[in-house]
Amino acid sequence: MKNRLTTLIVGLLVVAASNVLSAQGCTLDPTTGEWISPGGGPCTNTLISAVAFLRITPDARSAGMGDVGIAISPDANAMHFNASKLVFAEQDMSISATYSPWLKALGLQDVYMAYLSGYKKIDDLQAVGMSLRYFSLGEISFTDENGDPRGTGRPNEYEISLAYARKLSPKFSMGLTGKFIYSNLAKGQSIDGVDIVAGTSGAVDISMTYVTQADLGDATSNITIGAAITNIGAKISYTEDKFKDFIPGNLGIGVAWDIDFDEHNRLTLGLDINKLLVPTPKHPEDPEYDIDPQDGIADHRQKSLFSGVFGSFSDAPNGFPEEMNELMFSIGLEYWYDKQFSVRTGYYYEHPTKGNRQFVTAGIGLKYNIFGLNLSYLIPTSNQRSPLDNTLRFSIIFDIGGGGGADAVPTDG
């Protein structure tokens, strides 16, 4: 079962975005010009990209808050969400490591994602960060078109990121991140005579953060607004032809409200809204799905990088309502007591026609001196299974160097 399942995953990743509209039985409504399902509702039209592991939330703190992370207080894991936050961190230096089992509910033991990240503040105005993300698909058995054995392999993907963040004013900062991406899913194998190679790409993130105080009587209150454009980079291919697939570019906007009721009690409310910056495919039976059918490649795959990114705001087949359905929402809550113990919860929502990932999360955090530990748990609320269903994830954080002292608000989760 494991071999069949993992082989299927690899196959899906290799051909990602080649034919992404799972709308069998959909028909065109001549009155509205929209594609509708047999039940009368809109067709499923999920956005798919290669190297989707880049969008997996890598740390247990945010995972316990419904994947909220763009504007919450900064720690080493800001490298994934919004590197510009690093200059607002209380600690001079911090390192974090996270382990996330993948498909644990199916009994797989060697499929996982590991994430290592850290930052160092150069001075009060500047900070640098680095992260390494590694995704293992475990050991699989390859077969040819006839089902004959073709050996075994260990597909894996990784990303290396370097970031620089700088304050442009006491309340505003910007960050720039460069990335190298490597994806080896079936290198050395072949499909229908086409050799499979490892895919590589480079990408950048551009991020910004604004922090301001809010008047809340006797309590101390801060509002943080963050925005990040991530994974904007070269398209990737697993074969040596000219057709490549988009990597998961994303636009994220977040807001967080921190309330310190007294020296022992702190509450954070967070909201993130994300949108993938990849083309939306048309229905396979639409005449515009592939204007040149001789090449066998759907037109949305043939768009250039910037055409795909900018066009992603207006290319949904069913117009503006479908574009709005492509927004993903995360809501999170975090409570700290005495800067040593925290509880978290959150909710993540994705529209049923765009993936239907909907789940509730819970988590806890412990902090003692320079050491922090975070745990999170995901509970699905839709019929769309998640690879992290009922999975316990954990992160550890070490704060190194000076910080805000005994009265500093914990920023490392």
Number of strands: 20
Global structural class:
mainly beta
How large is the radius of gyration? 22 Å
Helix count equals 5
Q: Proportion of β residues?
A: 35-45%
Our measurement of the CA-to-CA distance between the termini, rounded to an integer number of angstroms, reads: 38 Å
Poorly predicted segments = 1-23, 404-413
Helix content: under 10%
Tell me the series of helices and strands, N- to C-terminal: HEEHHEEEEEEEEEEEEEHHEEEEE
Output mean pLDDT: 84
Shape, principal axes of CA atoms: globular
Q: Order of strands across the widest beta sheet?
A: 3-4-5-8-9-12-13-14-15-16-17-18-19-20
When the domains are counted, the total is 1
Largest sheet, strands/sense/barrel: 14 strands, antiparallel, barrel
Write up this protein.
With 413 residues, this protein is mainly β. It has one domain (2-61, 68-320). 8% of the residues lie in helices and 44% in strands. The chain contains five helices and 20 strands. It has helices at residues 2-14, 60-63, 78-81, 305-311, 320-325, and strands at residues 27-28, 35-36, 93-101, 112-121, 126-136, 140-143, 149-153, 156-169, 172-184, 190-191, 194-195, 199-216, 219-233, 250-260, 265-276, 328-337, 341-350, 358-368, 371-380, 392-400. A 14-stranded antiparallel beta barrel has the order 3-4-5-8-9-12-13-14-15-16-17-18-19-20. Strands 1-2 form a two-stranded antiparallel sheet. A two-stranded antiparallel ribbon has the order 6-7. The chain is globular. Residues 1-23 and 404-413 have low confidence and may be disordered.
